[in-house]
Amino acid sequence: MRGKARATVSGRHWRWACAASALLAAVAPLALSADPLGTVERNGALVSVEPYAPGIVRVTIATDRAEAEAKPGYGLIAKRDATGWSHRTDASGDIFASSGLTVTVAAQPWPKPPSQMERYFAPSLPPVSISFAGPEGKPLTRMNGWEKAPHTVSDEKTFRVGANFADTLDTHYYGLGQYQDGVLDLRGRTIDCRHDYDRPGGESVCVPFMVTDKGYAILWDNPSATTVSPGLLNATRFASNVGERVSFFVIAGRTTDELYAGYARLTGATPLPPKAAFGLIQSKARYETQGQLTEIADGYRKRGLPLDIMVLDWFYWTRMGQLDIDRTAFPDPAGMNAHLKSMGMQSIISIWPRFERESRWFDTLAAKGWLMKDKDGNPVDGLPIRSDRAGALIDSTNPEARAWFWDRIRDNIFSQGFDYAWLDETEPDLVPEGHFFSIGSGDRYRNVYPLLHTSSVAEGSARDRPDKRNLILCRAAYLGTQANGCLFWSSDVQSNWEALRRQVPAGLGMTASGIAYWSSDTGGWQWPNGPEAQHPVLVDPAGATAMAPSYRDYPELFVRWFQYNAFTPTLRIHGQRPGTALWDYGTAAEPILASALRLRYALMPYLYALGRQTSQTGAPFMRALFMDFPNDPAVKDLGDEYMFGPAFLVAPVTEQGQTKRRVYLPGGTDWYDWWTDKRYTGGQWIEAAAPIDHIPLFVRAGSIVPMGVVMPSTAATQNLESIRVYPGRDTSFTLYDDDGTTNAYRKTGGRSATLRWDDKARRLAASGRLPTGQSPEPLVKIIGQ
């Protein structure tokens, strides 16, 4: 059974398995529920149909009624809602219908005796076929078959479970998490959906939520390692390594935003981060002393460069797992944080889930059973690969361990004035296959750790710091992890041009998975190392200290990476190099970087409004083009440009020496070049200028872009400098602001005003007073007149 130790666990595991079972109710109750809209039988197969909204349904298939009618797994928090649904039976089968979705469980005739060949090759499971149709009966997809094959995993007798769905040749598939393979469209690929830090192209992250361009999405409810083959050989196949049932959700919607609203309904809303999260986050692997960190913060202010957050990365502790601060290197952390706050800055500190055997907490955690275990019940201490894996992993599937972890963070670290946590290694880095959590085997719960581990800080902060808005820097995700206030990044990627190219589709795949806040380490994390430049270097490396002199084009790479990340949901500089601040890339790079940074801060009114909209709708604001241009076939597999909110089309430069690039402007609208205001007709490829001092950037006709005055950080009051209007259609944009740091906005709703553009009258009107208190009329700047 899901969610508890099974009776098939071997005798040597029995005592530990019983303890795991006893903890179940406190961790994530998966009690049986006998109230689906309908459970129908198909010759021994039980099919349960549970509605969650007019356009959302869950289907569970099993041979055991308890499994067929059990609740969903981890990360799924919505309650069933059968309002507006009906159930009838006719010759075609059982039909469950609402205004947004129709589910037909096909009738199955009594099976005939197998032929001689079928005796060897026919499947043993009773056949099940389920079709799904959207509004007006539009066919969406069909589940053609299911799988439940017995095998043994980590001494547990279980099953490999899966399902096959119909495909059409023009269906495109997106999401499933983060895969740094350089491709956006999943069609024709096979995705190994598991968290894997060591994936050759860069870390993979499994979020088993897949969106199509045909008006539906599939959420696969199984946390074990899962293989997904979208549109491969005329079918889409899901297969999970451990389970006793098939469980999945189908979400139907007229737009992709309706699909993301469904995902948010099922797994939780994406909270609005503190406003500082939208500013520059400065990090380095690592600041070794308090003086080094404050010197960098002071350097930004002395140079007049905006900065919001300083990050203290790992090894500030006396030993891995002490959960303390080395007072030799950081003699006054509270004073350090007070100094940052005096300059309008906040702080993030890295907190790891690992505990060295010699640390003060190891014996306590081991005695309580709060560490991940091997098959004999002993703590797993490191792995035989990669030299940085010493230490045992806290078992965050155990609610008592989670509470203990948060208490230490609150009392030992946040008490020193640190604002937010960076929970690194949330894959987890100690791979759980063959090992055991309190809730069961690491194989069964392979992908769930990021959700439960980050909930330790999310829940603890909500309880003990209720007025402070939460933020967690997270390295991996699962269904629902976005609701914990996580900002994700693509992990420890290489520092070369190929790695930069791979970031763009990887990020679009992650946001297509319902994970709105994603970015990458600007400049890459690994020590700067790349092949010799093949083209003239566009940024003179003179004065650069961030890399070895032989990597002459690294300042150019950093400039292009920074320009790209300035148009991702968060902007963070990080890396394993001598210096990472804006002035460490040479005298030629610094003014270019400063210009891009100031543009980011000027767009803060636009960015913060996008964040508020995401918190309300669940829709990401870094958007692959298929989301906004569903009728344009040219954008279906276009993964190197994207929309950034409703206005901007961003086309990052990812080739060394490049000063122009091909850009596709989607059809159905006109476009303005941000830099020149030149207007283009959509539905065409153009050759866009890409001089080193700017990124190709276009604005959709019929857009409103509020621009603020540049300020040193988001702690300062920011008035609007202008409201740019790009004519071409009637449009609106809702400005939003609040105090930027507390949760008061949840009750008061903040301050907002909707701007409306009448294209025919060429007039902008506001629904009320602007959040800044300014009058809109003097601020309006109509582009092209």
TrEMBL record:
Q: Name the Gene3D superfamilies on file.
A: Glycosidases (3.20.20.80), glycosyl hydrolase (family 31) (2.60.40.1760), Golgi alpha-mannosidase II (2.60.40.1180)
Instruction: Supply one GO molecular-function term.
Output: hydrolase activity, hydrolyzing O-glycosyl compounds
- Which Pfam families does the entry link to? DUF5110, Gal_mutarotas_2, Glyco_hydro_31_2nd, Glyco_hydro_31_3rd
Residue span, Glycoside hydrolase family 31 N-terminal domain: 47-228
Q: Which UniProt keywords apply?
A: Glycosidase, Hydrolase, Signal
Q: Which residues are in the DUF5110 domain?
A: 723-763
**One biological process term in Gene Ontology:** carbohydrate metabolic process
Which N-terminal stretch is annotated as signal sequence?
1-33
The Glycoside hydrolase family 31 TIM barrel domain, residue ranges: 270-610
Looking at the record, the residues that make up the Glycosyl hydrolase family 31 C-terminal domain are 618-705
InterPro entries cross-referenced by the UniProt entry = DUF5110, Gal_mutarotase_sf_dom, GH, Glyco_hydro_31_C, Glyco_hydro_31_N_dom, Glyco_hydro_31_TIM, Glyco_hydro_b, Glycosyl_Hydrolase_31
Q: Which family does it belong to?
A: Belongs to the glycosyl hydrolase 31 family.
Q: What is this protein called?
A: Glycoside hydrolase family 31 protein
